[in-house]
Structures are given as structure tokens and as C-alpha cells.
Design a protein that fits this description.
The protein is of the alpha/beta class and 267 residues long. The chain is 31% helix and 15% strand. Helix 1 packs across helix 2 and helix 8 packs parallel to helix 9.
Length: 267
């Protein structure tokens, strides 16, 4: 057995080696993009004590929901392909967040055209999206032991922890900004096709995956077991730091956070 194979397969040594590797990788990426990533310091505690919504693009989301948020001037995080809603509403996200590299590469022009107060993107794409002051960059840090434990970052300018869903990245950002109430909307956590815990493709009876019943196929299939653990970690961290997370999504399969009725929130 070669040294590389030994390091990869040894159950005691491998996690240690990969932890060191991922930390060094994240530290190097931060160092190389420090000025861009440190822009995130400008929004530290910028919304202390406020409430916000993290908007997914699940089929339960409606344009009417977004109109309500706009009418009530609620700060919102829009994620990934949220631009597919723009033809149906004048609502626009306060913050736009993207994480999936393949999705970003396939939607560069759409992302450039998004109207948002701030776009928060992986530092890997700094050369693509440029030095616009309305764009803030972050390092996505992987962990060797992600299969067992999800981490939650409190050093957002240095890195955001991998949680296998852009909603988890958005939660970390919301906490960094000081929001004390976080509402999930359109986060259905339910897909027609996804990867199981053992990386096998699972097909379900779900008919639609996205807003407007869009027939879009992910480049990277959702990892529902891993993202579930991410949500559990978010709840654990937020419970310990006096931040409340609620699920305002209609239906869906996200049961980690207490459910609330969106239609009663603004009456």
C-alpha cells in the first residue's frame, strides 16, 4: 500500500490529514482574497435584533409571498436560481447568495444581472464577477469529518462552513449580520431525485422541484441527509446563541425548525 492510499484509508490518520489539508486550503484562499473577503466585516451585526427571510426556490414558493415581503420591507436572502421569480414579481432580494460552483458557472450572466443590495459569492469566482463594491466574497471551507459532523462558522470573513445547501450558508450569514429571527420560505427540502446517505441516486414521487414548476435538472444532485444534518447544526448553534429559526414554507419535508403559518405573520 502506497503512502497516499494509506493516508486516505486509515480511519484514524485520514481525518487528521484531511482536516489539516482543508484548513490550509481555506487559509490560503482567504489570504489570497483577503481584501475581498474582509468586505463581509462591513455587514457584521448590521441587522442586530431584526428578522429576515431566507428564500428557497421550491415549488411551494409563490410570487404573492414575495410581494408580501416586499410590501413589508423585510430583508431577504435570495439563493441560487431565485432570478426565475423575477418575471412574476417586483420583489428583489436584499442579499443574493450562491454556493454551487456548477450552478454559478452555468448562470454567470443571470447572476450578474440580479438586482440586490449585496451579492455574496465564492471567492473562487472573484475574477469572473470582479471588484464591484456590491459583491462580497467568501471562502467555502470543507471538513474531513463532514460525513459525521457539520460545522458552523462564526468567522464568516475567513470562511463559511460546508453544509450541503446554500440555505445553510445563508443561515451562517444571517447570524453574522445579527438577525435574531430567521424564517425559511420556499425551502421544500424535497426533490424528485437526490443522493442518499451512501451516494446512491434515489428517485421519488415528487413531481416538481422548483418555483413555477420549472423543469430544471441540478448539475449536483441534492444530498438531503447531509443538508438535514446541516439544518440540525444550525438549530443547535442558534438555540445556543439566542437566535430563532422558523420554517414558514408551505408543506415540504423540512421538519427541523418550528413551523409557522406565513399567511398569519403579517396580519
Amino acid at each position: 500500500m502506497g503512502i497516499k492510499s494509506f493516508l486516505q484509508n486509515n480511519k484514524v490518520i485520514s481525518p487528521i490529514v484531511w482536516k489539516i489539508f482543508h484548513k490550509k486550503q481555506a487559509d490560503t484562499e482567504y489570504k489570497n482574497n483577503k481584501a475581498l473577503c474582509d468586505r463581509l466585516l462591513k455587514i457584521k451585526d448590521a441587522h442586530k435584533g431584526e428578522k429576515c427571510f431566507i428564500i428557497g426556490t421550491g415549488p411551494s414558493l409563490t410570487a404573492e409571498d414575495l410581494n408580501v415581503l416586499k410590501a413589508n420591507n423585510i430583508p431577504c436572502f435570495g439563493t441560487h436560481r431565485i432570478f426565475t421569480t423575477f418575471e412574476s414579481t417586483k420583489w428583489r432580494p436584499t442579499y443574493y447568495v450562491a454556493q454551487d460552483f456548477a450552478l454559478i458557472k452555468n448562470n454567470i450572466d443571470n447572476i450578474k444581472n440580479i438586482e440586490a443590495e449585496v451579492k455574496i459569492l465564492p471567492a473562487y469566482f472573484a475574477d469572473v464577477f470582479g471588484n464591484d463594491e456590491k459583491i462580497m466574497y467568501y471562502v467555502l471551507r470543507e471538513y474531513a469529518d463532514s460525513a459525521k459532523k457539520i460545522h458552523f462558522s462564526s468567522k464568516i470573513n475567513k470562511y463559511i462552513s460546508q453544509g450541503f445547501t446554500v440555505a445553510y450558508a445563508s443561515i451562517q450569514l444571517a447570524v453574522w449580520m445579527g438577525f435574531s429571527e430567521i424564517y425559511m420560505l420556499g425551502v421544500d427540502h424535497n426533490y424528485s431525485t437526490y443522493l442518499s446517505k451512501d451516494n446512491k441516486v434515489v428517485n421519488t414521487s415528487a413531481k416538481n422541484n422548483y418555483f413555477g414548476n420549472e423543469n430544471y435538472v441540478c448539475d449536483n444532485l441534492p444530498r438531503l441527509d447531509d443538508s438535514s444534518r446541516g439544518y440540525l447544526k444550525a438549530k443547535e448553534y442558534c438555540d445556543a446563541h439566542n437566535v430563532k429559526i422558523f420554517n414558514a414554507t408551505r408543506g415540504g419535508k423540512l421538519e427541523v425548525f418550528p413551523r409557522v403559518d406565513f399567511d398569519k405573520l403579517f396580519k
